[in-house]
Design goal:
The complex is a heterodimer of chains A (947) and B (421). With 947 residues, chain A is of the alpha+beta class. In chain A, 40% of the residues lie in helices and 18% in strands. Chain A is built from 36 helices and 28 strands. Chain B starts with a strand and ends with a helix. Classes of the chains: A alpha+beta (947), B alpha+beta (421). The interface between A and B is large, with 55 and 44 residues. Chain B: Residues 63-75 have a biased composition (Low complexity).
């Protein structure tokens, strides 16, 4: 579904109303937690060293407050880790153990962090707090707990200054995401003062947990200052310094007022002193914690009083930066004065002044419309900023909109740069690349980032924001989305082609995942299917159940070693004979690639199927049998290794990964590996694969050695290169001809059998162009037009498909008899021409009998194969120069221009034809292969169409 | 075909009376009759008479016509039923009561109806050989063949001189897909069922010498198993009894042209003991192999082969019967002479039937090819020919200037042929 539509459909009010509940644990959950906690603690009493409350709480949350389960898990975990493990370690379940797994996307997080680092801003929306926390994490492993820690505790302290805003659920109750935990852990590790930090964090945990949400109507400011009063965590010197320096540099800082400067200086100073220097800045900083309210109204008067309680807790430099007003000139670099400064003056001054200044700073309060607009657009901090400003001035309305901002931002879209910036709101704040996906929190309920309840309460604020920003939820979200989408027909986008192309390009750029088709080739019995079965199993694409079933089944027929291959060899014949007969198509994901896997048969009789698959591939994985004698058998004349290499190369595959399999049979001998590599390398170069596009890997498919990981000691001794999956993750993705007219050579026609996707179905790969649901396409040969009812990409329905993807199309308005394997689907306006005679430039391979005019051959084009004849030999050329015209014979290795005619079938009056285009028009539609008597004798490209 | 009578003089004049019996005979007749030949057969013609009063009357007469053939239509390769017939059109050369000289008539030559043929250009060795071949008792084996792949099958009958595709079967078989292969299995079952029915209908397996199942991969085994499983189920005794005649052979493609490969298979040639198609296939194969191993000993194309024949270098001549059907008697003669020349030197001349796949493949290679007994470089030979011609021209010029060159005629024998090509 289009994101625009999604945005349009959002019920703003509903979204906003939900907001408060989603921020953390619900009341109910909190209550459950409170009851469960003591029980769990009692049960775990005997464990030495004691398990931290945070850990307990975390696991309770994970197990939905099922005390028994949580305790069991904790015990197990504890035993495993041993006493040596530091408390923060064990609160982080290992991925495998995590009962409610949330994929943590660390790389992505970092990326965003860096993006956001430059935008510290005083208005303390969730977004901004997050950015702060991040910054800290990113900068110097300075303990962000400091920021957040103030939040939970803050609630417990009464706030003296009631405000118009409603404080949503206390931040303190917010569960901490694993990400945050991880970040924290790292930070702590880096810190010299980590121990104290950890202990303080854990000690504060119970406190925060007990906290109940602030009653509606409570002043937002109240939360702020009060929390500020709580002990801030000490920062390591290093961390503080770094953070301060970074902050000072940051562009955003330039907008921060002079006060901020001061504060940062102070922060640095504090850090350098390494002693706790409570400052006045703390209170305003504390306001950060409240996401939705107007925040920079830290009650200045109270701040100084309260700020001192725990010398160990000091503000993070960023908070200082943002909020401090005290001018303690230290070493911070000069910052340009900016109107942002004005913003923060009120912090230390009087409330009235503050409000006034806010208005000054932001100009007239935004109209509600503006707010909504921003809310829709927005993930940019600016929006939040301005809305918060409004809130400060305009009360409830402004506040709601402020709250809604992150929410609506949660659309599964990509971040947009905020263009509408409130006039005076210091537009630098806009933070592109921050998808704030609050709603995912709601949708995923406890599975969201918050599922580790207040392990480090000090972090919770930031934590919540993180969750709100939905960074770690993307996968969950995507999956859920997938589930939902799967059973829904996608409406057509009805975009014009150019728009769609633009959108596709943009999407691809943003997602960073590129589609690639991989064909697995090699001599028969090299272990192609087994390797792929193993890979799929290791990746979790092949379920344990299927695997066991296959194991049992294959053992039963006495082919135990085929267990993994059976994952792909599904046909009865294939299983009976232990040979792959037809292409098996499936898909899997690597971190940067979306791989369509085509497992090709290796037996020479099934090369037509292999060609049909190779024509759909971008990259080839050649599996070579490394066991004694077998490599040679496959590589010598009559073996498929050579032919496959030529085939895939001439079908447009540029990159090849050579997996030398079954090295376990030669006990991982490096000599054998080198011997094979030395034999193959020159050959592959001669076949047209450049050395840089050729990778060699030692593999053991049966045991899965070097497939996902290399854990074989013998192999590790001499090989430490990439594993198979690493290599596949880095293969180059060719440029796709999106702009060319649509061409889909059909590789399979079948009847859809599921309830959702029934009717005529065809599958194939888009050679070029784009396609969307609702398009009318023509099947060539024939004069039939069909409508695309559903598009399935990798077994999920999609609104559109683009060149390079393998798709299954469900068509309506066409009888299946008009579709055959080899039919080409194309736009009604630009059908592919039907050809009976054409000239082609061919490269002659290793062949037994030379080619002469009139040689009867089989012509292969995608999934088609037709009898044809080389009717004329026009010229032999060398390096682009014609060296001989009208030759009598073509010997091996020759490059020649020939005329190829299709042979009429005996006795039939129908002239045969094939949908074909010249290579100049469409590369993939212009490639042909020529075979004779079971061997591939030449490959060519169509130069000119004669008739 | 029955030879009713034969009156051929030494000089090639004379006639034969033949009675064609089936498709293949018609194919022979088609190859025998060339333009200008006189055909005499019984026919029915509607005769119109105009009386003196001007009223017209029409009636049918059964009479004998002798048109000189001007064209004949080939029996289609893929005929529904064995209703072989050949049409010969031309001007009547022998007047009778009903038909005036020079009137056009189209004769239908049908099975079991005698006709008399006399050749305008005289009976040459190739024509006589063909009559002998055609009238040989128990000539040739009939073999049934099924060439198939997944979803495609061609059911063929092979006789000595022709391959008839009796039926082509194409069903769409979905390929294997993730999550269930039931579609594929069901379609394959359906496909085998169709093939099985066609086999029962079209292959007289009781009289055939052998039935060949050829396919790439395992399809042939699956079909074989299916057929006999079905035969057992339906207790089809004759089919079960013919089991020993069924041979499974590997072919590289599911196309009909793989029959050539299939027929070359040793198990088949052994079974068929020198069947014509087997010999043809082997000859073609030899040629290709020679081309690969020694390009100078494998020549093709009428000009080049003619040169090789002139030099007496041809060991095996491969020639398609297509070339003898030339409408130009001179051209036909040239090929006949080439065949005779090769044979006279102890060489082998294989006349390929273009109704066989191997013949068609030869047709694609210009219809004529030769395996030489010793290597000859085409380019050198061509150069020699050019020089020879130049010399000849010079001499001719000299001869016309002076007297008439006597020895020029002697040389010209070979040259004249070259000129034609």
């Amino acid at each position: 579904m289009s994101r625009h539509r999604y945005v349009r459909n959002i019920d703003l009010d509903a979204e906003m109303a939900d907001e408060s509940e989603e921020e953390g644990m619900s009341q109910e959950e909190r209550a459950q937690m409170i009851t469960a906690m003591p029980i769990a603690r009692a049960l775990l009493k005997d464990v030495r060293p004691p398990i931290s409350d945070d850990a307990i709480a975390d696991s309770l949350w994970h197990y939905w407050f099922d005390v028994d389960k949580a305790v069991t898990w904790l015990r197990k975990d504890w035993e495993k880790k041993g006493a040596s493990a530091s408390p923060p370690d064990n609160i982080l379940p290992t991925p495998a153990q995590s009962p409610r797994p949330r994929p943590a996307k660390r790389p992505r997080l970092h990326a965003v962090q860096t993006e956001r680092e430059s935008s510290p801003q005083p208005p303390l929306s969730a977004l901004q707090r997050l950015s702060i926390a991040r910054k800290e994490a990113g900068v110097g492993r300075s303990p962000s707990p400091a920021i957040a820690s103030s939040a939970p505790t803050g609630d417990s302290i009464s706030s003296p200054t009631p405000r118009t805003g409603v404080v949503p659920t206390s931040e303190g109750t917010k569960p901490m995401s694993k990400l945050a935990l991880l970040a924290q852990k790292r930070k702590e590790a880096a810190q010299t003062a980590s121990i104290s930090a950890a202990s303080s964090a854990s000690s504060s945990a119970p406190l925060s947990r007990v906290v109940t949400p602030a009653p509606p109507g409570a002043s937002p400011a109240a939360a702020g200052p009060s929390s500020a009063a709580l002990p801030a965590k000490p920062l390591s010197k290093l961390a503080q310094k770094m953070a301060a320096a970074r902050a000072a540099k940051a562009e955003a800082v330039t907008q921060a007022g002079a006060t901020e400067q001061d504060q940062s200086r102070e922060g640095v100073g504090a850090a350098s002193n390494a002693d706790s220097t409570p400052t006045d800045n703390v209170p305003p900083e504390a306001t950060d914690v409240d996401p939705t309210t107007s925040l920079f109204i830290g009650t200045p008067e109270q701040a100084p009083d309260r700020a001192v309680p725990d010398p160990a807790h000091r503000p993070s430099p960023f908070f200082s930066l943002l909020t401090s007003t005290s001018a303690s000139p230290k070493s911070s670099p000069p910052v340009e004065p900016d109107s942002g400064r004005i913003l923060h003056l009120p912090f230390v001054r009087d409330q009235a002044g503050l409000e006034r200044r806010v208005r000054e700073a932001f100009g007239a309060a935004d109209s509600p419309d503006d707010i909504v607009l921003r809310a829709r657009q927005g993930r940019a901090g600016t929006a939040t900023l301005s809305t918060t400003a409004t809130t400060a001035g305009a009360g409830a309305k402004g506040k709601t909109s402020g709250g809604s901002t992150p929410k609506s931002a949660s659309l599964p879209g990509k971040p947009r740069v905020q263009t509408v910036v409130a006039g005076t709101s210091k537009s630098t704040v806009s933070q592109p690349g921050t998808p704030a996906k609050k709603h995912s929190v709601k949708a995923s309920a406890s599975s969201s980032g918050g599922s580790t309840p207040k392990v480090a309460p000090s972090l919770t604020g930031a934590q919540a924001d993180l969750a709100g920003l939905h960074l770690d939820e993307e996968v969950d979200e995507a999956e859920r989305e997938k589930e939902r989408e799967r059973y829904r027909e996608k409406p057509g986008l009805n975009m014009r082609q150019e728009e769609l192309v633009a959108k596709v390009k943009k999407d691809e750029e943003e997602s960073g995942k590129k589609n690639i088709s991989l064909i697995v080739v090699g001599h028969v019995d090299a272990g192609k299917s087994t390797l792929m079965g193993r890979l799929l199993y290791d990746l979790g694409e092949l379920s344990e159940r299927e695997k066991t079933a296959n194991e049992r089944g294959s053992k039963k027929v006495g082919k135990g070693s085929f267990a993994f291959a059976w994952g792909l060899d599904a046909l009865g014949d294939e299983r009976d004979r232990g040979v792959t007969i037809d292409i098996a198509t499936t898909h899997f994901n690597t971190p940067h690639r979306n791989v369509t896997l085509l497992d090709a048969p290796g037996h020479r009789d099934f090369i037509p199927a292999m060609i049909s698959g190779a024509a759909q591939a971008d990259v080839a994985l050649m599996v070579v049998d490394g066991s004694p004698g077998e490599f040679e058998a496959g590589f010598e004349r009559g073996g498929q290794t050579r032919e496959h290499a030529w085939l895939v190369r001439s079908l447009g595959v540029r990159e090849i990964v050579v997996g030398i399999n079954k090295l376990d049979l030669v006990s991982w001998s490096q000599d054998r590996y080198d011997e094979i590599v030395d034999a193959l390398r020159p050959f592959l170069v001669s076949a047209g694969f450049t050395a840089s596009k050729t990778t060699f890997l030692p593999l053991g498919a049966m045991e899965g050695v070097n497939v996902l990981v290399n854990e074989e000691a013998l192999l590790k001794e001499w090989y430490n290169g990439p594993t198979l999956i690493d290599t596949l993750d880095q293969v180059e993705v060719p440029e796709r001809p999106f702009e060319s007219p649509l061409r889909i050579p059909v590789s399979n026609v079948f009847k859809g059998q599921t309830a959702v996707a029934s009717g005529v179905a065809v599958s194939g790969r888009l050679c070029s162009g784009v396609l969307q649901v609702g398009d009318r396409i023509r099947a060539v040969p024939g004069d039939e037009v069909a409508q695309v009812r559903t598009i399935e990409v990798d077994e999920d329905s999609a609104p559109y498909a683009v060149a390079g993807q393998n798709v299954t199309l469900y068509l309506s308005g066409i009888d299946p008899i008009h579709l055959a394997i080899g039919t080409v689907l194309c736009p009604t306006s630009l059908p592919v021409p039907l050809v009976t005679q054409f000239t082609a430039q061919i490269l002659v391979f290793d062949l037994q009998c030379p080619i002469i005019a009139g040689t009867p051959v089989e012509l292969f084009h995608h999934s088609m194969n037709l009898p044809a004849t080389i009717s004329k030999l026009l010229a032999i050329s060398e390096r682009g120069q014609v060296v001989k015209k009208n030759p009598r014979v073509l010997q091996k290795g020759a490059t020649a221009t020939v005329e190829i005619s299709l042979r009429p079938t005996q006795g039939s009056t129908r002239t045969p034809s094939i949908p074909l285009e010249t290579a100049a028009e469409n590369k993939e539609m212009g490639r042909v292969l020529i075979r004779r008597g079971g061997e591939t004798i030449a490959a060519g490209v169509v130069m000119e169409i004669i008739s | 075909m029955k030879l009713v009578n034969k009156h051929i003089e030494k000089d090639g004049s004379g006639y034969v009376t033949l009675r064609p019996e089936d498709d293949e005979d018609m194919w022979h007749v088609y190859n025998l009759i060339s333009e200008g030949d006189e055909v005499r057969a019984l026919a029915i013609r509607r005769v119109q008479t105009v009386s003196s009063t001007g009223s017209s009357d029409s009636f049918r007469v059964r009479t004998t016509f002798s048109p000189a053939a001007s064209s004949s239509t080939t029996p289609g390769g893929e005929k529904k039923e064995p209703t072989a017939s050949l049409q010969v059109t031309g001007k009547v050369v022998n007047e009778n009561d009903y038909v005036r000289l020079g009137a056009f008539h189209t004769l239908d030559l049908e099975a079991n109806r005698d006709f008399r043929l006399s050749k305008s250009s005289g009976w040459d060795s190739v024509a006589i050989e063909r009559i002998e071949e055609a009238t040989k008792e128990g000539r040739g084996a009939e073999v049934g063949a099924i060439v198939l792949g997944e979803g495609t099958a061609a059911i063929c009958l092979l006789s000595e001189h022709m391959t008839t595709v009796r039926q082509r079967i194409e069903t769409s078989v979905p390929r294997k897909r993730k999550g269930g292969t039931s579609g594929h299995d069901k379609a394959m079952d359906n496909f085998f069922q169709t093939v099985y029915q066609a086999v029962l209908r079209l292959l007289p397996f009781q009289t055939l010498k052998a039935i060949v199942i050829a396919s790439p991969g395992f399809t042939k085994d699956s079909l074989y198993d299916y057929i006999f499983q079905q035969a057992t189920l339906t207790s089809n005794k004759p089919l079960l009894a013919s089991r020993s005649k069924w041979i499974k052979v590997h072919s590289n493609t599911p196309h009909v042209h793989s029959l050539v490969e299939a027929m070359r298979a040793p198990e088949i040639s052994k079974m068929l003991q020198g069947g014509k198609f087997a010999r043809e296939g082997q000859g073609l194969d030899r040629f290709h192999k020679m081309l690969a191993s020694d390009e100078l000993r494998a020549w093709y194309g009428p000009e080049h082969v003619a040169l090789a024949v002139d030099r007496g270098a041809v060991g095996t001549l491969l020639i398609s019967d297509d070339l003898f059907r030339s409408s130009d008697p001179v051209t036909r003669n040239r090929y006949v002479e080439m065949v005779e020349a090769v044979r006279s030197r102890g060489g082998e001349a294989l006349i390929f039937s273009s109704m066989h796949e191997s013949g068609q493949q030869l047709n694609l290679l210009t219809g004529i090819a030769a395996i030489l007994t010793y290597p000859l470089d085409v380019e050198i030979v061509e150069m020699e020919e050019r020089e020879e011609k130049e010399r000849l021209e010079r001499e001719k010029a000299g001869a016309t200037a002076g007297e008439g060159g006597a020895d020029g005629g002697g040389e010209g024998e070979g040259e004249g042929e070259g000129g034609f090509l």
